[in-house]
Design brief:
The chain is α/β, with parallel strands linked by helices. The chain has helices spanning about 45-55, 80-95, 110-115, 160-170, 190-200, and strands at about 5-10, 15-20, 25-30, 60-65, 100-105, 125-130, 145-150, 175-180. It has one domain (about 5-200): 3-Layer(aba) Sandwich (Rossmann fold). An eight-stranded mixed sheet has the order 1-2-4-3-5-6-7-8, sandwiched between helices. The longest helix has 15 residues, at about 80-95.
């Protein structure tokens, strides 16, 4: 996917390992991965599907390992320190001259985005399987930049009913898509996921 390894420094001096691919437009996206304590990292298949979808649209892509994952320094910080990781990712894209920046998260990565979105100026947000049955999302959070949320019909961590209710609170105009038969890991359904993402931004 034409990515090169990069190192990103956060405001609290954590060094994150990432993979960056320049795009053919002035647009870029920071992509966040699933839960570090359950084996989540930037090489997850759903994360790679997101990378593919955005690259096909000419976006620069940046995915990285949250603090404490892989070769990123630091330790897991309950989604709080991880917000600084996303902000460092946005700053990295800005340093590359990218002026339109989106965020795309999967599972735990969506939780991090939802709780830091008010701190950063981004253009669009895509969320895949926000784990509403696993992690508490703040009821007062709004995500006005949300354009799309996707989950699987058989996802026990992000059940369609709970996810759709969250989406309606976050941004009533956002698209909500459910993939029949898909579980939280989208095994056998990544092509459908890719198609849905490409059609919605």
């Amino acid at each position: 996917m034409n990515e090169k390894p990069v190192k990103i420094q956060t405001n609290d001096q954590i060094i994150l390992e990432g993979l960056f691919s320049p795009g053919s437009t002035a647009k870029g996206v920071v992509i966040t991965h699933p839960h570090p304590l359950y084996g989540g990292d930037m090489r997850n298949i759903v994360v790679e599907t997101l990378v593919q979808a955005f690259q096909k649209k000419g976006y620069a892509t940046l995915r990285f390992n949250f603090r404490g994952v892989g070769r990123s320094s630091g330790t897991y910080e309950n989604g709080i320190g991880e917000q600084a990781d996303v902000m460092a990712g946005i700053a990295f894209l800005q340093e590359q001259g990218i002026t339109k920046i989106d965020l795309a998260g999967y599972s735990f990565g969506t939780w991090v985005i939802a709780h830091m979105i008010h701190k950063v100026p981004v253009d669009g947000v895509i969320m895949v399987s926000p784990p509403a049955a696993m992690m508490p999302f703040d009821d007062n959070v709004s995500v006005p930049q949300l354009t799309l949320a996707v989950t699987g019909g058989a996802d026990e961590f992000a059940p369609p009913g709970l996810v759709e209710a969250l989406v309606r609170k976050w941004q009533p105009k956002a698209a909500f898509e459910m993939i029949d038969g898909a579980d939280h890991f989208f095994s056998g359904y990544t092509n459908k996921l890719l198609k849905i993402i490409q059609e919605n931004f």
